[in-house]
Amino acid sequence: MTLRTGHIGLNVTDLDRSLAFYRDVLGFGVIAEGKEEERRYAFLGSLAGDGRPVLTLWQQAQGSYDKVRAGLHHLALEVDSVDQVREYETALRDYGVDFAYEGVVAHREGSASGGIFFHDPDGTRLEIYAPSGAQGAPVPSATAPTCGFF
What we know:
Largest sheet: 4 strands, mixed
Distance between the termini: 34 Å
Number of strands: 8
């Protein structure tokens, strides 16, 4: 038996606001949606794919993401190239997203992988990275992985 990640579920404070971000800025398709007032949710994924959810949004949070509480540390999304990372960076900047670092950064000193680190509308920490192409990009910390403490 081998376990695989099925989908990631995030609690959000405002489903409409989060849908606008994940659908319109990051490009996820809405696979299914629950619109009952006290039970609002959305299953997101690739509409061109197999129809399986990748991310689910649940409108049940009372407040913003809190990095000092146990739970999700960050959500990392992989793309094929650093050029694609930069395309997302442009779209996110146009949307007014809060970035943890300036531009593409390497995961650690000498690493070929790297990406951008930012926050969704509820403050949840997100990363879009490419497995290669970030050689020579700045490294925010020489003593810890870039994704560890942003």
